[in-house]
Amino acid sequence: MKAEILAALREAEGYVSGQELCETFGVSRTAIWKAINQLKKDGYDIEAVQNKGYRILSSPDIMSENELVSIRKTQWVGNSIYYYDVTDSTNMCANRLAQEGAPHGTLIVADKQESGRGRRGRGWNSPANTGIFMTLLLRPEIETNNASMLTLVAAMAVAKGIEQCCDIKPQIKWPNDIVLNGKKVCGILTEMSAQIDYVNHIVIGIGINVHNTEFPEEISQTATSLYLETGVHVKRAQLIEAIWEAFEDYYERFMAYQDLSAIMEEYNRYLVNLDRAVRVLDPKEPFEGIARGITERGELLVEIDGVLKKVSSGEVSVRGIYGYV
Question: Whole-angstrom Cα distance, residue 83 to residue 81?
Answer without folding.
Answer: 6
